[in-house]
Design brief:
By secondary structure, the protein is mainly α. The protein has two helices and no strands.
Length: about 45
């Protein structure tokens, strides 16, 4: 796998786009992981 210093401009651009997409999706994953399931919410958080 090429390093950042040895990759072509196109490959580096693709890597930047992929890294940005992964960062964007990881925010959604974290939100999903930290949100309780409706049944869990009903069991523990409802009054």
């Amino acid at each position: 796998m090429p390093t950042a210093s040895s990759c072509s401009p196109v490959a580096c651009s693709d890597n930047d786009q992929i890294d940005s997409y992964i960062e964007l999706k990881m925010t959604e994953v974290v939100k999903f992981e930290q949100t309780p399931h409706p049944v869990e919410y009903e069991m523990y958080y409802s009054a």
